[in-house]
């Protein structure tokens, strides 16, 4: 299949690697130093836990032209960056687009693409479970033995699901389909925002943070408050196990947090640079918009925001 991965950061680079190894004709869109790296050396990834490095040759472009047609377009980037690429995606004549990453307004983005495209646009949303960081010349990818993407539409089944499945048929990558990705994505950032208060509370020193039992219990309570905001607005917290963990299994949640913060994985996933400041701030704004609509108190969340390095509201 002819596939474009729009965005060549840590997550997009790994996705492109998987798709290339699956036998697809993959193009990556990149700019600046990353464009030069891909053109000279290919898509170089150090797989952190697997103790190996891979290098894949890919086609590389710096701009998406309207006449560049792909069977699938995966757009992999930070939430606040999606808006800047929507006009180019809408103008492009490819008909199937998957926006991958945190997203507080998927419905708005889907509506924009469908209203402003010269062709019928089929739009899905996904979230890839992997992490990592960038170093000159290569990406470090932190992942388990099988990376998965949660993917789906906005309250409807995807009639073009077989096209997505075909792209991954020869890979070890797992696709988990959700019918309502709007609810899933909102539930997800209600979890990750409180967790990302932990590192700033101790200037990034997770060894100190793990000893602050009060802080960890506040984080767990704040997650539940976020769930309550969604429930008040009529959303179903998805997956249900997330709601159960924060509301009825807090001791288990607490133990999981303690373990995670004590390991190298915790530093990567919950460190002060795990989620960029601009993405955190954009998600904060989305949370406060939802909270304002729900009009319910969130005392634990409010207390945690004192730790945030972002501008106070």
UniProtKB/TrEMBL annotation:
Q: Which InterPro entries match?
A: KPR_N, NAD(P)-bd_dom_sf
Q: Which residues form the signal peptide?
A: none
Q: Which positions fall inside the Ketopantoate reductase N-terminal domain?
A: 3-152
Q: What is this protein called?
A: Ketopantoate reductase family protein
